[in-house]
Amino acid sequence: MTSTAILAYIPSPPQGVWHVGPLALRAYALFIIIGIVVSVVWGDRRWVARGGTKGTVLDVAVWAVPFGLLGGRLYHVATDWKTYFGPGGNPIEALYVWNGGLGIWGAVFLGGVGAWIACRRRGIPLPAFGDAVGPPILLAQAIGRIGNYFNQELYGRATTQPWGLEIYERVDANGRLDPLNGVSTGFVEKVVHPTFLYELLWSVAVVVLLVLVDRKYTIGHGRLFALYVAGYCAGRFWVELMRDDFATTIAGIRINTFTSAIIFVLAVAYFVIATKGREEPATLRSNDDEDREVSEVTSSDATGSRPTPVDDTTDAGTADVQPAGTSDKKAEEEGSTRG
User: Fold this and answer.
1) Cα(24)–Cα(12) distance, rounded to whole angstroms?
2) 236 vs 70: CA distance, rounded Å
3) pLDDT, tens digit, 9 for 90 and up, residues 94-150
4) How far apart are the C-alpha atoms of 200 and 4, rounded to whole Å?
5) Could you give the C-alpha distances from 74 to 67, 94, 102, 110, 138, in angstroms and in order?
6) pTM to 2 decimal places
């Protein structure tokens, strides 16, 4: 089959990696970085709007992002260990995160651990922080799925639907097959369901829903974050059912299907039992923000810039407008007394 057979099909990018000298520019990494930047910028605006301190999201991200990347990779390797440690596998490739392979549940779990550490250091409640950054995180996930498109991965079973995705044969400079780093030959190996695109569109729809819910209802204490988790898991569940690429299974069912269902139930349970309402804005202010205010007040006192008491000002004004002759009369009275 060639790419001109059915023009309605969605073409894959001819390559996902561009080499500039010794430097490899990878679309997968680029879109992950873009997603992180978008989530930090938007998340910070949401946090400030809820009463938090500006810049907090970036400070927390310094902890959460490395933890999240580590957790995502660990989950991927653990659930696909045969690829790296099975027959014909290369264990060192388990460290090649740039080749793709980040499990979102591992990323959210360990990323949450990193966020918890950072929130404790700043004295802010983690559940409230999660409510602010939940929608931005899901938007970042959607952006990251574009990287899967360039890598020709996370696709589903073969299809004849007009929105089917063409998967090209890719080869390296020596003509050897290299699906990840190679360049397309134009030959279409198969046409499949673009499940990465289904997940992307589902995630964007859930982001819009979360924003609308957050505006209409007074929701806090981690309940909006729980809705994000439940919404994503619901979509991921049916997306996993459409995939037939290699994956670890339990009783013939993909392990990610089990994970989606279990975490969905836990997220819904948390949403139901968690505290209703929203935190007071004053409780979201960081410790360093309060310390800065105290420092400013102390600095003001040290420079003598405190306002002059009202009584002192009044006395000085009264002395300036004493009637003429008052001082002479007082001097005569004092002289009479001494005499």
Assistant:
1) 20
2) 21
3) 887 777 678 888 999 999 999 999 999 999 999 999 999 999 999 999 999 999 999
4) 26
5) 10, 9, 8, 10, 20
6) 0.80
Indicate the residue type of 300: S
Residues contacting 269, CB < 8 A, separation 6+ = none
Contact 240, 262 (CB under 8 A): no
User: Contact 240/256 with Cβ under 8 angstroms?
Assistant: yes
Instruction: For residues 165 and 109, give the distance between their C-alpha atoms in angstroms, rounded to a whole number.
Output: 32
Closest CA to 257 of 271, 244, 272: 244
Torsion angle defined by CA atoms of residues 265, 266, 269 and 275, in that order, rounded to the nearest 10 degrees: -150
pLDDT tens track for 134-192: 999 999 999 999 999 999 988 999 999 999 999 999 999 889 998 888 999 999 999 99
Q: Are 161 and 170 in contact (CB under 8 A)?
A: no
Cα–Cα–Cα angle for 274, 201, 72, rounded to 5 degrees: 60
Q: What is the 3-state secondary structure (H, E, C) of the chain?
A: CECCCCCCCECCCCCCEEEECCEEEEHHHHHHHHHHHHHHHHHHHHHHHCCCCCCHHHHHHHHHHHHHHHHHHHHHHHHCHHHHHCCCCCHHHHHCHHHCCCCHHHHHHHHHHHHHHHHHHHCCCHHHHHHHHHHHHHHHHHHHHHHHHHHCCCCCCECCCCCCEEEEEEECCCCCECCCCCEEEEEEEEEECCHHHHHHHHHHHHHHHHHHHHHHCCECCCHHHHHHHHHHHHHHHHHHHCCCCCCCEECCEEHHHHHHHHHHHHHHHHHHHCCCECCCHHHHCCHHHHHHHHHHHHHHHHCCCCCCCHHHHHHHHHHHCCCCCHHHHHHHHHHHHHC
